[in-house]
Each structure stands twice: as structure tokens, then as C-alpha cells.
Predict the structure.
Amino acid sequence: MMLKPPCFTDYYSSFLCLPDSFSGEGKRVFQSSLRDIPINGRYLYSVIFTEWNGFSICSTAPEFHEICRNLFDGSSESVMRIFRVLSQDMPELGIDSFRRYFASSDSRMDRGEAVQLTPGLVSGLKFNSEEESRGYILRKGPLFEQGRQFAIIKDRRIASTAFLSDISGDAANIVVYTSPEFRGLGLGRQTVAACVEWCRDQRLIPIYLVRDSNVGSVRLAESLGMVLGSFESIITDRA
């Protein structure tokens, strides 16, 4: 018997740290230790404002919980008030709009030329130096071990790559990068498709978080038939 795939609604409720009994009434600010964990080891999303079943929600790192609880009322004005208060002491903070996409279709995606990266494959590629090649293999070791990084190779160089940077619960976060000279050729679409297929084989929800202003990434998600799961305002660490 085929097992039922994980549900985005369940994932997102857990991601925001909403209680099972949440009905939208009363408390709308929730603290979560997940807000203290950088995505891809780099991007810290300390406070997330979003909509859940028609209700405005704030999911915040524990250290900002009191400020958010006192100021958040669901309005965009209260979001900016919270940002101004936090950024007074932490000028490195920024705020931006994001789209959280996920893949839900059961149909298989065409990964095209995308291949799974391995240490052996990477060792045969061109880098600026042998030291850079060794450093790349060492840094990407956990991804290679689990087979969760994919790439398209052109002239023995990585033209485009995508990988699952973080796995939390039933979901995995997709990161994609295409070298400037190869953009606009659909290579990123193929590497992301390979990541989606890997997630399906592992029974994980593929998550693709993109800035609303990043037109290329938005188009990529929509070209793959990804579903817009949420629209979020996020207070981030610019560093």
C-alpha cells in the first residue's frame, strides 16, 4: 500500500510552532527555536509574519517574543513597528517579502541534464586551484553522502547547481545557483527538478523560499508547477 505523502499544511503549522488546538482566535504570536537556526548555514530568519487559514500569524525567535507579543496586531503597520524597534539595537537586520513554494504534484519532473554530484565527479571538474576543489568536496561532504546535490556540467565546470540545504521534519529546503553566463537557459529549472524528485523519493516536501522581488526565481518555481504555499514578511539578518 502506498503511504500518503506529508501535507504542507501540517508542515507549515509545525514550522510556525502553532499548537494543534489553534483556531485563529486569541494568541497570534508564537515563539520557535527554529527561528534561531540559519537556513543553509547562512540566512537567519528571526521573525516571520504570514497568513494561516486566513489569520495573521507571527512566528518569532524566543528573544524577540515579548516585543512581538506586545506590538503585533496583525496589521502591516504593527509589522513595521516591530522591525523599527528591533533594528534600533540591531542595525544589521532587514525586512523583506518572500514567497514559500512547495511541490505537490504526483507527476514526475524532467531533470534534463542534471546529475547527482559525487566527490569523484567533482574531482574531475575544473576549479581555480586544486585546493579550491578539495575545499568544495570537504564543504559539501554531507550533501554528497546523502546524494542531495545536483548539477549541470558544461566544459567541466558547474554551470548550475541545486541542493537540499536543510531537512526539518517532513520538509527540505531547496537552494539553487546558476553561473551568470548560463542564466536564461533553463538549467536552474532542471537542477531544481532533480531536487524535487529526490524529495519525493525520500517522502519529503520540497520547499523553495524566494524573495518576492526575485522575478527569475518566481518564474522558475511557477514553470515547474510549484504551489504558492505562503506569502511572508521576514525580518532577516542581512549579514
User: Anything to note?
Assistant: The radius of gyration is 19 Å. The helical segments are 8-15, 65-71, 76-89, 119-123, 130-139, 141-146, 187-201, 215-223. The longest helix spans residues 187-201.
